[in-house]
Amino acid sequence: MKQNVDQHSVLIVSDDAEFPRSVIARWQAERSVPAFTLMSSDVCLAFDPDTFHLAVVGGLQTRALSVVLEAMEAAGRRVLFVCEDAATETTVRERWPSVPVLRQRENWLDTLVLVAGEMLRRASAEAEGSRLEHANDALHRQALLGRYMLEMRHTLNNALTSVLGNSELLLIEPGSLSAGARSQIETIRNMSLRMHEILQRFSSLEKELTVVDRQAEKESGVKSHAVAANL
Questions:
Q1: Intervals of the chain under pLDDT 50
Q2: Would you say 41 and 67 are in contact if contact means Cβ atoms under 8 Å apart?
Q3: Are residues 88 and 81 in contact, defined by beta-carbon separation less than 8 angstroms?
Q4: What is the Cα Rg of the chain in Å?
Q5: Cβ neighbours of residue 113 closer than 8 Å, sequence gap 6 or more
Q6: Under a CB-based contact definition with an 8 Å cutoff, are residues 39 and 47 in contact?
Q7: d(CA 181, CA 67)
Q8: Which of 51, 47, 61, 50 is nearest to 14 (CA)?
Q9: Fewest CB atoms less than 10 Å from the CB: which of 32, 69, 195, 215?
Q10: How many CB atoms lie within 10 A of CB 29?
Q11: Cα angle 25-30-33, degrees, rounded to a multiple of 5
Q12: What would the pLDDT profile of 108-134 be if each residue is shown by its tens digit?
């Protein structure tokens, strides 16, 4: 069975064995074919909502209609409902207005693949939007942390200057420290120097970022001017 690069998955819920066969056979004529999972209404309540992007529901026993659609609605999954008669269509539209309903008229399979494909594309777009939003939030938090570190570097430098100065004073006093204490003070001085070097790199990074921002603003202004000139 062919599968598309997005790894879409479609759950087909039906009590009519012919219904999923018809849907799958028609879909396989398309360039992009999702992975299919088949369930009857008797077992569909055990579905995992994270394992499919769209549920196609059709050919249900009458008693199973409410059970299946209520379960899908509670799970927040996209559903495309297929029915044969006007009464069932009216019932679903009234009780579950967010569920698209498709009547089994002429060429209904073509319409199903078209509508379902659009629903899957929307699902992918929303998932990508959510991913980008989370990534943007993470970048925002990192930027806040970076700005805080840049703002605090002067305070840290002052503290390090004090630590370095006092450690140097202790080290130049001949015979004032035991060998062990002198070794510990040297470690404090060396680590302070290392922290000072790191803070200096932050300062260099800030200057580099400022240059990049100014260059980007300059290029943006040039492009805007060129666009305006061509109007």
A1: 1-5
A2: yes
A3: no
A4: 33
A5: 26, 27, 30
A6: yes
A7: 76
A8: 61
A9: 215
A10: 10
A11: 75
A12: 999 999 999 999 998 888 878 888 888
Mapping DSSP onto H, E and C, the string for 195-231 reads HHHHHHHHHHHHHHHHHHHHHHHHHHHHHHHHHHHHC
And the tokens for 211?
């240059």
Backbone angles phi, psi at 101, to 5 degrees: -120, 135
First to last CA, the chain: 52
pTM of the complete model beyond 0.85: no
Q: What is the DSSP string of 112-180?
A: HHHHHHHHHHHHHHHHHHHHHHHHHHHHHHHHHHHHHHHHHHHHHHHHHHHHHHHHHHHHHSTTSS-HH
Six-digit token string for 148: 């805080």
Q: How far apart are alpha carbons 60 and 69 in whole angstroms?
A: 11
Strand arrangement of the beta sheet that strand 9-13 belongs to: 35-39, 9-13, 54-58, 78-83, 101-103
